[in-house]
Amino acid sequence: MSSTPGARNGIGDQIAAEDARVSRTRADVSRAALDVLTNEGWEAVTHAHVARVAGYSKTTLYTHWPSRFDLLGMALDAIGDMPHHEMTGDARADLVGELHEFRRAISERRLDRILMAMAQWGASVDEIGRMRQRIVDDGQQYTRRIIGEIASGPDLDAAVTMLSGAVICPALMYGTLPDDATIDAAVDIVLAGLRRPEQQA
Amino acid sequence: MSSTPGARNGIGDQIAAEDARVSRTRADVSRAALDVLTNEGWEAVTHAHVARVAGYSKTTLYTHWPSRFDLLGMALDAIGDMPHHEMTGDARADLVGELHEFRRAISERRLDRILMAMAQWGASVDEIGRMRQRIVDDGQQYTRRIIGEIASGPDLDAAVTMLSGAVICPALMYGTLPDDATIDAAVDIVLAGLRRPEQQA
């Protein structure tokens, strides 16, 4: 809401100032919640700690975002778009590029911690479930599009989840990330497997 | 430690009784911690709640297992062996069978919650990291053995993590589980992909 000439320093300006303040608080808390989540993990996302990092009082946080999953929602708000590889039109190169970006998002932006916090709450809190859906769909969109040109149905679903799994499973299960050779092998196996003879009948 | 004839009702018996009591407490708390973790998720694994479920005082729990990851370690102790499909010798049938068992462990025993709690702590707490390694190795051992007969190196690693990913990724990313057709497709893609022409040279 912006002020009009006839309302200088009047109600219009007050509302505009109030809006700006609320929206700045929101952006600060959102960014702080994401920083805490990715740097320290979900355990650290408490009202006291996020308030301290954001530079607001604990009371302010409890007033606007009373539960811990409200804080998770704020963190997810700050994520923005998932990083993507620039498409070249070559399926193999583009899939490898996307998996490298996914791996980088885990190592540099701790996307694994975000995914696990979302998994923990996504099933029971509708709003988190919807945000998770949006973030995952965004993350998988290029992989799904590339595979969608050569497969459909269960083959498409299996291939997309397996390629995600090639990156996220080592992180989840062993706390490691796949090396380049393993990512190459994953893409080669999936592409050759999707073109298996019985599928081309 | 067991009593000796010469020490009836003496120190030996006292120590034996004490050992039995400690070991019963340990088993009760271990089972309660696992129940809380799988039924209610990691958020619910607190000293107060596990003590209530196990029927012990909060003080007893804090004395023996002072931190929350001590409670996680207790829960992991109670897991026992991972369920496995009975091997038939047919690679396709055995891989499909193993993925069905993995899916059932997620839906019935909430293995996904166990994996996520381990992922959260496994990186920073050595003991949890070791227990995770043991549980994951046990879970993947048959899949790794079957794939190991037709592949090695990056192909083997990629295939094993992708097959795990076909089951765990939908749970992690969408809160769903793959249907039979998607599991079949995953196994067919991987088996055909591993036998791709350039690999047989």
Question: How would you characterize the overall build of this protein?
Answer:
2 copies of one chain form a homodimer. Chain A is built from 9 helices and no strands. The longest helix of chain A has 30 residues, at 11-40. The first copy, chain A, starts with 10 loop residues before the first helix and ends in a 7-residue tail after the last helix. The relative contact order of chain A is 0.09. The model of chain A has no long low-confidence stretch (mean pLDDT 90). Chain A is elongated, with a radius of gyration of 21 Å. Chain A has helices at residues 11-40, 47-54, 58-64, 68-77, 91-109, 111-122, 126-148, 153-174, 180-194. In chain A, α4 packs parallel to α7, α5 (91-109) runs parallel beside α8 (153-174) and α6 (111-122) packs across α7 (126-148). With 201 residues, the first copy, chain A, is mostly helical. Chains A and B meet through α6, α7, α8 and α9 of A and α6, α7, α8 and α9 of B.
Keywords summarizing the entry:
homodimer; 201 residues; mainly alpha; 73% helix; elongated
Give the topology, please:
Two copies of one chain form a homodimer.
Chain A: H1 11-40, H2 47-54, H3 58-64, H4 68-77, H5 91-109, H6 111-122, H7 126-148, H8 153-174, H9 180-194
Helix pairs in contact in A: 1-2, 1-4, 2-3, 4-7, 5-7, 5-8, 5-9, 6-7, 7-8, 8-9
